[in-house]
């Protein structure tokens, strides 16, 4: 029998603003390293690239752009790192990603852009093996320092983003690939819950790398639902 070669797992942490996402990514990164896992942390958008600097200026309310233009820039920023993600995964490195395409889809559609239009530019990107969505209540958001400092940190918009994330979760289907975590809980409790889901993937996976919103895969998943 041929030997099965494992690749690194692709783990995405998503969430509403001020959900503790970046803090939890840091804690999870430390726990993975302590367990001897070869892991790389990515933050999307990557604000250090040429495109990322334009995005950063927009998010800080220092410049204005058309909603469609900024959505496409966010997508282009993700495509900038796509090949790096794939090569790292093939080399056995676990990729831990702070936000990904789901945020772009949720935030842009929450602002009134057509959902399917928002989804289209990211079709074909590497798909995560698991996405952990940190869900935080409006009350908890408002109590957390700095809420409102960036463009999208508005309570009504965040509620629409939550609804959009719910739609994304429904589309991603079951199988543990999309997990909602209560981010109102204490920091340590959230960290334990994240580790519970990530630990089984820490040493890699022999599953083939999927593509986001792959048409053939989506048709197969939908047909399975009605078998």
UniProtKB/TrEMBL annotation:
One of its GO terms (biological process) is dUDP biosynthetic process. One of its GO terms (molecular function) is dTMP kinase activity. Gene3D superfamilies: P-loop containing nucleotide triphosphate hydrolases. Keywords: ATP-binding, Kinase, Nucleotide biosynthesis, Nucleotide-binding, Transferase. It is an enzyme of class 2 (transferase). It comes from the Eukaryota. Its EC number is 2.7.4.9. Pfam families: Thymidylate_kin. Pathway: Pyrimidine metabolism; dTTP biosynthesis. InterPro entries: P-loop_NTPase (IPR027417), Thymidylate_kin-like_dom (IPR039430), Thymidylate_kin_CS (IPR018095), Thymidylate_kinase (IPR018094). One of its GO terms (cellular component) is nucleus. Belongs to the thymidylate kinase family. HAMAP family: Thymidylate_kinase. This is Thymidylate kinase. It comes from Obba rivulosa.
């Amino acid at each position: 029998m041929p030997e099965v070669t494992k690749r690194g797992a692709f783990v995405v942490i998503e969430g509403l603003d001020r959900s503790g996402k970046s803090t939890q990514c840091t804690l999870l990164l430390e726990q993975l390293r302590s367990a001897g896992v070869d892991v790389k942390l990515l933050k999307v958008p990557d604000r250090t690239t040429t495109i990322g600097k334009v995005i950063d200026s927009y998010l800080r309310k220092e410049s204005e752009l058309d909603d469609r233009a900024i959505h496409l820039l966010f997508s282009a920023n993700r495509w900038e790192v796509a090949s790096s993600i794939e090569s790292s995964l093939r080399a056995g490195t676990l990729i831990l990603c702070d936000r990904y395409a789901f945020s772009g889809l949720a935030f842009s559609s929450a602002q009134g852009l057509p959902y399917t239009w928002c989804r289209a530019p990211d079709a074909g990107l590497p798909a995560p093996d698991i996405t952990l969505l940190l869900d935080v209540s409006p009350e908890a958001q408002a109590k957390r320092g700095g809420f409102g400092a960036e463009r999208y940190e508005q309570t009504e918009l965040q509620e629409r983003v939550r609804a959009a994330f719910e739609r994304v979760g429904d589309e991603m289907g079951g199988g543990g690939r999309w997990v909602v975590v209560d981010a109102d809980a204490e920091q340590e409790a959230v960290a334990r819950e994240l580790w519970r889901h990530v630990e089984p993937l820490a040493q890699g996976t022999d599953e083939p790398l999927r593509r986001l919103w792959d048409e053939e895969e989506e048709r197969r998943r939908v047909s399975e639902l009605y078998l």
